[in-house]
Automatic annotation (TrEMBL):
Organism annotation: Daejeonella lutea
Pfam families in the record: GDP_Man_Dehyd (PF16363)
Superkingdom assignment: Bacteria
Coiled coil: none
Molecular functions per Gene Ontology: UDP-glucose 4-epimerase activity
Keyword line: Carbohydrate metabolism, Isomerase, NAD
Protein name per its UniProtKB record: UDP-glucose 4-epimerase
Amino acid sequence: MIAGTKILVTGGTGYIGSHTVVELINSGYQPVIVDNLSNSSLQVLKQIEGITGVNPEFFNFDLSDKQRIDNLRKIHPDIEGIIHFAAFKAVGESVEQPLKYYRNNIYPLVNLLDSFSEQKVNFVFSSSCTVYGEPDQLPVTESSPVKPAESPYGNTKQIAEDILRDTAKATHNLRVTALRYFNPVGAHASALIGELPIGVPQNLVPFITQSAIGKRGAITVFGNDYNTPDGSCIRDYIHVVDLAKAHIAALKNMENTAQGKTYDVYNVGTGNGNTVLEIIKAFESTTGVKLNYTIGARRSGDIEKIYGDVNKAEKELGWKAELGLPEMMSSAWAWENYIKQHPF
C-alpha cells in the first residue's frame, strides 16, 4: 500500500470512480474504496493495479449501513478526504422508481456526514449539470438558477447539494466542493478501465461503441427537430480522465486554502456543446467505423441543449479539460475492443 493522504472513495470501482482512483494514486494519495458492486465489477481493482502498480484497499458494503461506515472510520481514523460517487444515475429509471433513488442517493450521504462529523474532512461531491434543468441562457454558470428537477435523479443531486451546504455551514469540520459534471465519456488511455454499463446502456457513447462492435442494433437519435444546428440535442461531453483530474484539483484546492469557503460549486466540462449527430460523426471519423442509426421521436425528460461556463474551475482550481472528441471516441472504442477480448 502506498503512503500518502488517505481519501475515502465511495463508488470507487465505478466508471468515474475508478478513473479518479487512478489519478489519486498518480498524485500521491492513498485511496480507500467502498463500493457495493451494484453497478461495477471487482475485476476493476485488478485493472487499477495494472495501470498504477497499486492494489487499493477495498471494502464491499452498502453505505446505507451506517455501522459499517463507523467501523471503517475506526480502521482508518486518518482519512482526511472523501470523494462521494456512490449513487444510482439512470434518469428514466428514477422516474419509474423514485423511492429507490431517494433511498439510495440520500440516506448514504447523510450516514457519511454523520459518521465523519467529529473529524476534519475535505469532501468532494459528484453532482451534475442536471441541477440547472432546461436553462434560460447558455452557457450555464455556477450562479445560473437551479430549477425544479426534470427527474427524481436530478432532484437527488439538488437535495444532496442542499444537505452538504447546510452541514458545512453548521460545522467547522467539513469543507465541501460540489462538482457539477456535464457528460463524461471515453476511457483510460491504457484501455484497462472504462464505462461498463450493466444491461442496455443509458448513455450515448457506450451505446455507440456497443452498436459498432455488434452488441446492439441501430442507434436511435431521439429527435431531430430541436432548435440546434442539425436538430439533435446538444450536450457538453468531457473526457473521463479530465473529469477525474478535476477531483484531484478540488481536493488540493481545499488542502491549500485553509481559510477558504466551507462550500463551493464548480462546473466541470469543456465549455463547448456538441450535438448527438456530431458525436456520431466524430466516432466515425476517428475510428473509421460506419454507424447504423435512425431518427426517433423525442425522449421524455431530455432538455434541448446545455453546456457550461467552466472559467471558475480554471481560475480557482487551476483545472481545464485537455482532451478533445478524437481522444474521447478513440479511447471509448479501444475500451470496447478490450472488453470484447477480456470480458468482465
